[in-house]
Amino acid sequence: MEFYIDSAKISEIKEACSYGIVSGVTTNPSLVLLSGNADYESMVKEICEVVNGPVSAEITAEGIDKMIEQGRKIAKWHPNVVVKIPMTEEGFKVTAVLAKENIKVNMTLCFTLSQAILAARAGAAYVSPFVGRLDDINQDGVALISDIMEVYELYGYETRVIAASIRHSQHVYLCAKAGVDIATMPFSVFKQCFTHPLTDAGQKRFMEDWQKTQEQFGMK
Ligand code: G3P
Fold this sequence. Notes:
By secondary structure, this protein is of the alpha/beta class.
């Protein structure tokens, strides 16, 4: 299982990378808004210099021809860029065209197994089911991940599954058990995954005992 960071903030991406476990980045227009930087192209190029792995950049054009044109442009920003395309009817057509040109596509906003199957058939390199947003409407986001993994395995689809809209470390745990290829997580969830109160309490106790040992044997 791989971990991507779901962020367009370069400082966060750099810090997450310093943990040595980030192998890719996903961005979207909402994350660009949060980053406070409207120059998407230079932002994505900078991210590609920081992370040596796939970096998803989302198209924002409307209409098939314009979407295809923008997808081709985005794909040229950097060899590691993956073009993120929404799972709309138009998005499927655009994906089919770009995939035939060997452009890597991440089909995003996936909420059903049938959408995920169509993404694989259209030639998408990645599919992004949104776990948290399904939970938000009282559906089981992790169950969708399990279903996609099972059916992709059954038919030998090579499209890689990125569990997205991950809200907390329990999502990461459950998606791992479902055998997902990748989880893309906000920086806050990375931090959650690292921490446990018993780790912190245990480390505090070790350090206190070390101090006592030093004092008792006159090492200070
Ligand atoms: O990768 C998709 C993600 O950015 C959406 O997350 O929390 O807005 O549903 P969320």
